[in-house]
Design brief:
With 447 residues, this protein is an all-alpha fold. 72% of the residues lie in helices and 0% in strands. The protein is globular, with a radius of gyration of 24 Å.
Length: 447
Amino acid sequence: MTEAMRRTSTVSNWAALVASKFSLAAMPLEANLLVVLAAVALPWSTSAVAILFGFWLLSLVPLLPTFDHRAFLRLLANPICLWPLALVALALVGMLWADVPWQERLQGISPVAKLLALPLLLYHFARWRRSAWVFVGFLVSCAILMGLSWIVWFAPELALAPGKSPGVPVKNYIDQSQEFALCMVALMPFIFTFYKQGRYAAALACVALVLGFFANMAFVVSARAALIYVPALLVVLAFVHLDRRATALLFAGLVVLAATVWFTSPYLQGRIAAFALEYRDYQQNIAASTGRRLEFWQKSLGFFADAPLIGHGTGSIRHLFEQAAVGQSGLAAEITRNPHNQTLYVAVQWGIVGIAALYAMWVAHLLLFRGQGLANWIGLLVVVQNLVSSLFNAHLFDFVEGWMYVLGVGIAGGMSLRAQRCSGESQGLPAENASTVCADTSGHSRL
């Protein structure tokens, strides 16, 4: 073989390797791993999540020829996709009647736009057998963050970002609590399952993680909204996984545990006692967390009453608060883009029409996860946590909590739709080979 022939052969081999690397057959795994990495990055970095998700969207472009477009359109017409898209459409149309500069209107679109990813995630992850990797990646990432939280609580100088609250290595305690609470309750059924299967080491590992998350929220740092949504998640746990006797034992144990924590956690005592102090500040027109929420809610109800049907338009919230602050002082002069309540956030901008779309979406997603299995368990927890925590925050439109919802519902929903298709229920999924779509269903259908 001549030197030229050897070079040609080498080039051909490299070309074949590159072609196989970026072939349609290889792309799905790479695309899915990007979502896994986005879930891993979510507790740590907002920019990394945005970049990884952008790459994921680009990775789908070569897969477009494989899309079953009719099936995708049927999925779009399903309420689980229709109502999120209706919210986005309402936000777009709502720019037309907003009496604010166009820059403000465009900023009002940004928090809602993430809902556009839901149909793509539902469709895509209904076709991948290892969708649970995303949840495992998120759990491992949160466990590492929890360990680091304990470290920086004892040694604050080791925090990754200066100026954070004690025990908060990155971001803020509200995001951290949302992540830890979800992981803590999601793990609990696995303790029972592994114990019954005789997998004692795995059960013990789950117990250690659950206790670690709980102790961190009780003694280190947590959002006060967790006092509301954690009990709600535990009610869901009892309803889905426990009989009456086990439920009674669970809540009896929780009462004892709560009493123990109350008497041993000065941090928790201080957080709860702050409610009364902050309410007193509110009555004296002094700005504090509780007072701000009460003031924002009161004013937002007034804004809603002024335009109850279709609201004031996209991006109008800050402008309305600026007008209401004229001539005011103290707490009454506070200005915000976020009234810290999801319903009011929607009501002020899009009125009753927006509220109807929001609650119809939540109901559609709750109904999607009414079955048994891992996907339905995770999806149900994600929806319930978002719904309950949105009483005190606009979590659907916040970055971390919003992406927790979109990724959780999109991926768990895709797994659930896939299981439904394999059991003979049509939900607008592509008509693929049964051995490809339904393989490994048992791994996703039970805890």
